[in-house]
User: Which sequence fits this backbone?
């Protein structure tokens, strides 16, 4: 035993010393939400043998997330090695200003306009057509000379000349009309997604240095960048084909309306005997952005389930089982072509008939040029066995939270996602043409969000019997990662290679929901226009990216407001559209708000653990976009759903009785550390998400670069 410890120690020391010179490969498995405490507990219990191998021969550390500990923010810092003041990603939501309104927008992807046909191209076309007409005239006109030489009569050649002129005019006119028709049927410009990540991620910087990086599920990467040698598939941040974070639909007789988390209930219309029809919404029509392109669907119930027809494609559905991806094709009109999407269906029941449809996602094999989800565009490397989920948040957590689907549906879907990502990762790994392989798994995060109540007896929605019957689904989501690591260990890793497992944050219970707007109103820092105490409920469909979120706020009486998960802005004069707080009042007001937040008690317990000013947390060129205050709640507390999007509720703090029972987003980052597991021994010390990129450089034998906020963990400090 002692001898083996000495050997392990010697190997470790050698590894540390050799790290800067060795030029092996590095595999980074990113696991969204892998919690340090749970991992530690299950490593000790022998539940995760492959990860324990990593810990025992290398290192296992807590990895400190960004503040706030929100996935977009933390991943952005992890892949760039810089703080949010440089990445520009301060949370899930971005504080947009549209005219006189504050609009909560998706932080990772903004929108830009792209001219379809520029005025320059139009002018070029018109001139080109005239010149073409002239050329035809010149080609036809030499007859005049021939006729003269042959001494033909003048009338004849004049007539031929007139015919030539008429032909040239006719062709020119036809081309002009055709061009006009084409231009009229194309939109002048279309709305295109724009990546809001402001710092360079490692798949770009390493690519520029000639290091081939293959990335799967890369967060904050959409639209996919052009690379010189790397390959990339975008992850967190990719919208669905409708441009939303992911709109799922449940079709049922009489179904109607949107849910809080952005899903929809739609009608299934009985047409005859066992036959029903429905309408499936696709992307917006670029010529008429208020309208969605639609497809008719038909559902015919059979003994085994149903025959589903959408856009002419028939799929047989078995009751209670997800279909394979179905390709749906929407037409943008004859001239503007078609757009393809992929979607899974699940027949939930037959009496009454209930059909679940996941979000319509970009087709990875037939993408839109202005919204690529992979680089190379439409590349086949990851595609050999048919389509895979491309949406940034494909897990059906929203429909499950809204109680549109049951445990079995969510767990089946999460299992499919994890299996496919594992398969793609192993296939890419075995190709052996990369120096860095980066693959991100999101399913442990999604499972913990929904089933934390199972492992938390204090949770208001804990049901011991349900928890028992489900089994430990969180542990199972960790075991999937463990099985992947085992396969990488046996089939992929060679001597000199390093394997890292990293997560963007850990987890905490979400027992009590906090309506921060209500609290601000009680402190007389926030007010609604009609003077009422509560506003209407908020939903992603109606309030994300729209003016409706803050439409009922009385800005003339509001000095502080919340946007997103626990981030406060002052209604500052000169910055906000209706600012009333004078710049010279700012410091005192921030001090006062922070003091009151830290004094806040819920049944004698502190609600807030930390309040930090944006300028103290961040540095870099985008600090002016940061919130004035970032709240770190105590364990158990999180911002309420309605408060995220400007809504006010009757209670300030109340029991969270929903399925979404674990979280990290507005929890003090010190309480929700993620993990860093490394096959190579790392010296002891704190580790932060910003340290991963500098450490990756050192593991590849590359020089440190300026302008990063993280430190190299391979060096003793
Ligand atoms: Zn996350």
Assistant:
């Amino acid at each position: 035993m002692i001898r083996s410890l000495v050997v392990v120690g010697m190997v470790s020391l050698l590894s540390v010393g050799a790290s800067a010179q060795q030029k092996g490969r590095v595999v980074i498995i990113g696991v969204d939400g892998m919690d340090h405490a749970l991992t530690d507990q299950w490593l000790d219990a022998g539940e995760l043998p492959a990860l324990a191998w990593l810990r025992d021969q290398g290192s296992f550390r807590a990895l400190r997330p960004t503040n706030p500990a929100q996935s977009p923010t933390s991943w952005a810092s992890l892949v760039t090695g810089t703080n949010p003041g440089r990445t520009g990603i301060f949370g899930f939501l971005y504080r947009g200003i549209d005219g006189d309104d504050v609009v909560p927008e998706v932080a990772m992807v903004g929108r830009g306009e792209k001219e379809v046909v520029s005025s320059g191209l139009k002018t070029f076309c018109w001139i080109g057509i005239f010149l073409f007409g002239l050329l035809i005239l010149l080609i036809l006109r030499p007859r005049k000379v021939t006729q003269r030489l042959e001494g033909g009569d003048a009338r004849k050649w004049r007539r031929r000349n007139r015919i030539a002129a008429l032909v040239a005019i006719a062709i020119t006119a036809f081309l002009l009309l055709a061009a006009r028709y084409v231009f009229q049927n194309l939109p002048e410009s279309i709305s295109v997604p724009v990546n809001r990540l402001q710092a360079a991620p490692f798949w770009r910087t390493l690519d520029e240095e000639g290091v081939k990086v293959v990335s799967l599920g890369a967060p904050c990467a959409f639209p996919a960048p052009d690379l010189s040698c790397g390959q990339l598939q975008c992850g967190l941040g990719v919208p669905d084909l409708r441009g939303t974070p992911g709109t799922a639909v449940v079709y049922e007789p009489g179904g109607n309306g949107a849910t809080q988390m952005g899903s929809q209930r739609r009608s299934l219309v009985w047409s005859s005997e066992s036959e029903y029809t429905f309408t499936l919404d696709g992307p917006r029509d670029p010529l008429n952005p208020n309208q969605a392109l639609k497809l008719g669907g038909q559902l015919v119930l059979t003994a085994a389930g149903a025959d589903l027809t959408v856009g002419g494609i028939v799929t047989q559905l078995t009751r209670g089982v997800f279909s394979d991806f179905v390709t749906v094709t929407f037409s943008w009109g004859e001239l503007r072509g078609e757009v393809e999407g992929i979607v899974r269906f699940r027949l939930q029941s037959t009496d009454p008939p209930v059909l679940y449809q996941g979000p319509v996602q970009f087709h990875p094999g037939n993408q839109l040029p202005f919204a690529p989800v992979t680089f190379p565009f439409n590349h086949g490397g990851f595609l050999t066995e048919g389509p895979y989920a491309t949406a940034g948040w494909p897990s059906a957590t929203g429909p499950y939270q809204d109680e549109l689907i049951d445990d079995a549906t969510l767990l089946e879907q999460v299992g499919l996602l994890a299996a496919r990502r594992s398969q793609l990762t192993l296939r890419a790994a075995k190709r052996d043409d990369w120096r860095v392989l980066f693959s991100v798994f999101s399913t442990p995060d999604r499972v913990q969000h929904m089933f934390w109540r199972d492992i938390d007896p204090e949770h208001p929605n804990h049901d011991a019997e349900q928890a028992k019957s489900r089994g430990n689904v969180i542990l199972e989501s960790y075991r999937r990662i463990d099985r992947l690591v085992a396969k990488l260990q046996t089939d992929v890793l060679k001597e000199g290679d390093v394997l890292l497992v990293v997560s963007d944050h850990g987890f905490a219970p979400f027992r009590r929901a906090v309506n921060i707007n209500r609290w601000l109103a009680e402190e007389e820092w926030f007010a609604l226009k009609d003077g009422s105490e509560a506003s209407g409920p908020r939903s992603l469909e109606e309030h994300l990216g729209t003016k409706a979120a803050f439409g009922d706020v009385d800005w003339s009486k509001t000095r502080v407001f919340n946007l997103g998960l626990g981030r406060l802005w002052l209604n500052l004069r000169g910055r906000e559209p209706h600012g009333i707080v004078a710049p010279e009042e700012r410091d005192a007001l921030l001090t006062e708000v922070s003091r009151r937040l830290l004094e806040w008690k819920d049944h004698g317990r502190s609600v807030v653990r930390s309040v930090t000013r944006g300028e103290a947390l961040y540095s870099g060129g985008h600090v002016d976009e940061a919130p004035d205050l970032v709240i770190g709640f105590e364990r158990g507390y999180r911002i309420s759903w309605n408060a995220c999007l400007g809504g006010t509720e009757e209670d300030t703090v109340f029991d969270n009785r929903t399925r979404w029972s674990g979280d990290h987003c507005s929890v003090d980052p010190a309480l929700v550390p993620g993990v860093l597991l490394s096959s190579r021994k790392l010296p002891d010390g704190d580790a932060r998400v910003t340290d991963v990129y500098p450490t990756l450089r050192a593991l590849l034998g590359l020089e440190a670069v300026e302008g990063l906020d993280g430190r190299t963990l391979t060096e003793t400090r």
Observations:
- Residues 170 and 313 are 44 Å apart (CA to CA).
- The chain has 20 helices and 36 strands.
- Residues 1-22 have pLDDT under 50 and may be disordered.
- The radius of gyration is 30 Å.
